[in-house]
Amino acid sequence: MIYYVDTNAFRDGDGSKKRPFKHICDAAKIAVAGDEVLVASGIYREKVTPANAGTKDAPIVYKSIEKLGAIITGAEEICGWKKLEGNLWTVRVNNDVFADYNPYTTRVYGDWYFSPKIRHTGAVFLNDNMMYECDSIDDCKKGEPNPFAWNQQDASYLWFTEQDKDSNETILYANFQGLDPNKENVEILVRRNCFMPDENGINYITVSGFNINKAATTWAPPAAYQDGMIGPHWSKGWIIEDCEIYGSRCCGISLGKYLDSENDMYFTVKKVKSPTQMERDAVCRGQYHGWLKENVGHHIIRRCNIHHCEQTGIVGRMGGVFSTIEDCHIHHICNSQQLGGAETAGIKLHAAIDVTIRRNHIHNNIMGIWLDWEAQGARVSGNLMHDNCRPRCIEQADGAMFNTDVFVEVGHGPTLIDNNLLLSPVAITIPSEGIACVHNLVLGSFSLINSGVDSIINNQREPRYTPYHIRHRTEVAGFMTILHGDDRIYNNIFVQQYPITDNTKTAADADYQEVGTAPFDIFPTYEEWYKPFSANTDPDMGGLAEAHFGHLPVWIDGNVYLNGANVYKNEVNKLEAPDYNPEIILEIKDGNYIFKNKLNNIINNFYGNLISTESLGLAFEPEQAFENPDGTPIVFDKDYFGNHRSIKPIPGPFADYSKNAITVW
Asked: What is the pTM of this model?
């Protein structure tokens, strides 16, 4: 069955081609497996709530007839602004508009939220740009930009809200910096979501070609229900493709956790368990509630433009397992620095089990990709990542996180980072183990090496135990603290691209500035590590305790070090050229990103070994190979573009460096 929707139709109809529905939600109430909902161009100010599931062979497909022509928004136009003085205007909104969810009384708040400022889930938009919430009418009147905002010009457009309880109205104040809001496109957030089921298990939905924007989403911490403008709400087999997604107060797409009332915002409400214990509880409760490979995940997000959301572009805890995020453009996430906390990034996933993140362009975010806990089988491959850092003139706001391209936190592996262009000042942050970095170009540092895991409380070490899983499944196999090490670093190019301005920083810091592999000098070689366990030693449980809790070994070989990048002391096959600057520039021309370089002059006769699943071995704790999600082996014989590599490959993400200018996006 095909249902038709056209907001510009003469009048509401029955969903036929001649008499289309005017609202997508009417089709969403009745569409069943195998049905298609075709939506004409126009603005749909509604929340779409799919009521029924599709099947793997017969999904329910929602499609914008014209790509990005159908706009689903959680915002409403607001007119009738009255000028108070200077650039300050005000308008009143009857609270009945908001039904049971008022974004102007609902705070952005919850577990892992660190910002000291009161911020609401609502917002005011001027010509599609989210304005900045401020602390008082006086601040709004002054119109001074938030000093922590990455874009100072945008940050001078301010709003403030208060309630008039006598009239049951929300009062909004806004500084439009000389513009007349009654002549501009001014909207306010009204709805919490744009496209999301109310129930779990609404499986196999495809959403194709929509512009989805502006929703009053709530903060999405990992042990709580995770909100988004669009998402499967703990289901299986969704495809979100060819969409533009922007303007979420918090998260754009949620692949996140179901609502568990006993573990929802546990720390914020009860506070009696440590936040880390709360997260362990969430994993185990998820097992009880059916968190299985057969039930959840397996989503595809592809060819989407995700931008200007204030917590994450894509968020998920446990619900995103076995998913693929590919060919997306993810940028300008958490740039206002108004929302601070430990859940902010272009992509922020907990439990990214067998998740593939490939061929994306990820830039100008507070972090690029943050894989937190259980990145077992995750692969970050062939991505262009740059400028995932604050502008140099902007300081870190209270509660805001540090900056990096890829952050893998307290995982046991195996986690693959391969064939990427990692061009930000901090490239790879790994307070983890079981990481393999293969064939990347790295212009930034490693950070939080042998750091960022355990806490010292009451003068004693409190280890952070995290789970690992049955191979290619969700069932928990065990828990262990992070021993650090168990890393493989092969065939990368390291360039000291950015100046070192603070020599006091070490690789244990999040903002370490030195590029290269010398921070891994503290880890043993495999031979050194294995010596206490060799066949001619006694199986002495007590005597081996020190070895059991010592650092794990690392394997580092075939890398190139340029312009002063530092070198792992035990690396044998390497190329060092400390005085050679390859003059790397990422240039934008006609919408294309051009990678300019002089790498061929220095590396054209240096070769590494062909790396494969077999040569990488097993990640220590889960005893799992660095392999595909289906268990088949990987041979790293394809480069960033998918071009074939020779059996004696050149390091870095490209198989060929003969061109000094390469279009990379």
From this structure: 0.97
